Amino acid sequence: MALLELRDCTIRFGGLTAVASFSMKLPANGLYGLIGPNGAGKTTIFNMITGVYRPTEGEVLLAGQSLVGMKPYQICSLGVARTFQNIRLCRSLSVLETVQMSLVKGLSYGFASAAMNFGAFAKEEARVHDFIIETLSLFELDQYANDPATSLPYGDQRRLEIVRALASNPRLLLLDEPAAGTNPSEKRELLNLIRQVKERFEVAILLIEHDMSVVMGICEQIVVLHYGAKIVEGTAEEIRRNPKVIEAYLGEEV
Amino acid sequence: MSEFIQQVINGISLGSIYALIALGYTMVYGILRFINFAHSDIFMVGAFVGYYLTPTIVSICGGNLLLAGPIVMVLTMITCSVLGVTIERLAYRPLRSRPTLTVLITAIGVSFFLEYGGQLVFGPDPKPFPELISRVTLIDEGGVVVTSTPLIVVGTAVVLMLLLRWVVQSTKTGTAMRALSFNMQAARLMGINIDRVVAFTFVLGSSLAAAASLLYATVYPSINPLMGVFPGLKAFVAAVLGGIGNLAGAFLGGLIIGLTETFVTGYISSTYRDAIAFGILILILLFRPTGLLGKQETEKV
Amino acid sequence: MLLTPRLIGFLAVVGIALLVARFESQFNAYYFQIIIYIGINIILATSLNLVNGYAGQFSLGHAGFMAVGAYTSAVITSTMHLGSGVLSAVVFPFALAIGGLVAAICGILVGIPTLRLKGDYLAIMTLGFGEIIRVIIQNLGFVGGARGFTGIAKLTNFFWVFATVGLVVFMLSNLVRSTYGKGFLAVRDDEIAAEAMGINTTRYKVIAFVAGAFFAGLAGGLYAHFVTYINPSQFSFVKSIEMVVMVIIGGMGRNVGVIMAAIVLTILPEALRSIAQYRMVIYSLALVIIMIARPQGLFGDGRWGKRLWVAGRRISKRFSAG
User: Fold this and answer.
1) Distance from the CA of A7 to the CA of which of A61, A146, A249, C109 falls in 20 to 30 A?
2) Is B296 on the interface with A (CB under 8 A)?
3) Nearest chain A CA: its distance from B99 CA (Å)
4) Residue in C58, C113, C192 nearest the CB of B286
């Protein structure tokens, strides 16, 4: 069974159909790409998966369980994490606290323990702290641990957002244009990072990207979206040569 | 039945006044996305300006109220416009790029300043408002007493609102106002002078509030520095009820609130007169926060 | 319980409060009153800080919860005809706690419908509910209605006030430093990102709101048993705004700044008593000026926090080393 399955997902905003009858399957260890011209509906699909939008029609299934109607935080608890097109880091949190944010959901103590510092509090806090430092070192962000998250260079902020998503222990990771605004060397680092993440964390990855070198470089399968509908799905080679894809990006051949 | 008609007339009259005030709230919110708490106090200042001007102007006109009335109204509208624009320039404009809650608190501060300052300057005791609109009994049969007052109130309100509609729809500045309410960034890029359009908006809103205050003071001829609090609140609820940012909504909301208040006071009890507005506010915000005529704004993720 | 600088601070405050309370009767009554008010305002300001500052939910009706706590505890102690004496000393904290709990329940009732809204709408709703609570109390005959509730036992003293201050500040500081507390900050800064990372934002908002209401209720109870006469107009919108101003001037979110703001804003009106009629005019003008010139507050830049933190650290090192 596929880890993620979308079946005939459609979403309409008033008179506008943003996504029409979209279907795809993502296996548990897959690394797929979702591409298409601007406005094709890619982020909207992410939003449907993560519960920000509710599909007007169709199904979103995670390991067979329907996600439709659930709230985003519930979907995250089931193992779906994401990054955002325009990086959404909390401006008053440090790098360490940013990762800490993802661990709030799994805490074994509650309000009373937090306020009075008794019970499982000490142990939990230590566990959380150790985990965060370990994870940050893994991604070479530990030297910034106490710096404000938004003071990091752009590329590191993107990396931090990915780390934050990983800290929530997901089965499925959704990356929304992780290469946006990166220069060629940062892009290479990003490719390595994504490969590393997939191997180390055994997580399925679906990524939205505009940058073809990134997509073609690592994605096993690519789904092409145009005006809200899937026009083609295949490997990098198949996509590259497909006339419909070329037409979608470049317009009709004269 | 006759009492019913009486209540309807009173309700529409009161509602028109609320509508005029509500328009000020809704216009400012539509463009700047914050609630100008001080608007109700501009209303109050209008009443006091009218209070001080009326005797002089009336004597200049030799007791001719038909002449004096409009003159006082125009002068009051001008004064309040100046006040409104000054407040905008000094207190709100510096905060334009700040979070709306900062401006909200500032507006509350300005409101308090006008209220407590008013108590110092005008004295806290209520003052009787002089006659500015002559009261002529037109109909007196079957238990229904219709004086000229509600007719003049509604008439003036309607004329002003039609004028406003014309300004907003047909003039360049009015169109600029509408452009700003949709997307301020785009409007700025199109070369619209934001500061001037905003100032103009405050002129319009404050003038209407001034007119409303004179009409209100004619219906309830006792004025005091805190008189703006409850009418302001009710007008605000009216604006929210109609869909904040929507002009037609402000008018509709005003009428509904005016009628509801009159009927509840008349048929149920007057203790809850002011609490009704709160109740309606809670109900709208719970069930339909965008108001009757408002549209949903979805946040792009 | 973890031995932290905050715990030491809390125990120190309670200890000092006990000590000072013994000499209470020797204080100048006027200055003593101000000190009590300072304590109550600290509790109010820090409780509101949790809602407005940390969780970022703008509440303009907090005085309503204070009123609920005040009236509830007053009803309890009056029904039991408590005078001074050992029995009161035992029952009083319970009365306060129950006042807080009832306020917390009101917090749930108000919070759940209100916290779905954002920004301005949320502020207006809380304002509306604050007024509704006041109007309801005004119409309750058995607590005196608009005429007020008289004859409340004067049970509040230095110890109760500052023990509560210590407890509230202790709890709120712990909360903020914990991982759990980061949830509030995340909700404040970016709700969408917080939800995406698994935080139930509505639940967090409600928790902040209810906790804030509880502490405000405690403050209300302490207030009622100090002034011995309460009426609904003491808990109006103006009171709510005064609390909001303390939080803003204190720097929205920094407990230390908020405490200092509470102290300053309690003393200032008293110091300006000679020009009392101008007081509110000056207050509102100052508010506008501060919002324009320094919206991050006067005490909110973290420097004061650092100084206290360093001091606390030294003390706790002394304890753990020795």
Assistant:
1) A249
2) no
3) 15
4) C113
> Is B24 within a domain?
yes
Q: Please answer yes or no on whether C284 and B106 come within 8 Å at the CB atom.
A: no
Which residues of chain B neighbour A47 with C-beta distances below 8 Å? Answer: 301
Structural domain count of chain C: 1
Q: What is the DSSP letter of C149?
A: B
The predicted complex's ipTM stands at 0.90
C291–B110 C-beta distance less than 8 A: no
B151 found inside a domain: yes
Reference C160, options C219, C77, C241; nearest CA is: C219
Question: Which residue has 């929205």 as its token pair?
Answer: C252
For residue B298, give how far its alpha carbon lies from the nearest alpha carbon of chain A (Å).
Answer: 10
Q: Token digits for A29?
A: 């260890």
Q: Which two tokens stand for residue B91?
A: 């207190």
Query: Would C310 be classed as within a structural domain?
Result: no
C248 contacts in B (CB within 8 Å)? 105
Structural domain contains residue C286: no
Residue appearing with tokens 């709160």: B278
Work out the number of other CB atoms within 10 angstroms of the CB of residue C320: 8
Tens digit of pLDDT at every position of chain A (254 positions): 889 999 999 999 888 899 999 999 999 989 999 998 888 889 999 999 999 999 999 999 999 999 999 999 999 999 999 999 889 999 889 999 999 999 999 888 889 889 888 878 888 999 999 999 999 998 989 899 999 999 998 889 999 999 999 999 999 999 999 988 888 888 888 888 999 898 888 899 999 998 888 888 899 999 999 888 999 999 988 888 888 888 877 665 44
Q: Does A78 touch chain C (CB under 8 A)?
A: no
Determine, yes or no, domain membership for C248: no
Q: Amino acid letter at B126?
A: P
Q: Which of residues 23-82 of B touch C (CB under 8 A)?
A: 33-35
Chain B contacts of C288, Cβ < 8 Å? 91, 106, 109-110, 113
SS3 for A20?
A: strand
Minimal C-alpha gap between C297 and chain B (Å): 11
Q: What is the pTM (predicted TM-score) of this model? A: 0.88
SS3 A229: strand
Q: List the structure tokens of A87.
A: 């990086």
Q: Does B120 touch chain C (CB under 8 A)?
A: yes
Number of domains in chain B: 1
Q: Is residue B296 part of a domain?
A: no
State the Cα angle at B290 between B286 and B291, rounded to 5°: 85
User: Would you say B237 and B253 are in contact if contact means Cβ atoms under 8 Å apart?
Assistant: yes
Domain that holds residue C41: 5-237
Question: The domain containing residue B176 runs over which residues?
Answer: 18-226
Searching chain B, which residue's CA lies closest to the CA of residue A88? Answer: B301
Q: Tell me if C106 is assigned to some domain.
A: yes
* Number of CB pairs, chain A paired with chain B, less than 8 A apart: 5
| CA separation, residue B36 to residues B23, B28, B39, B202, C66 (Å) | 12, 7, 6, 10, 27
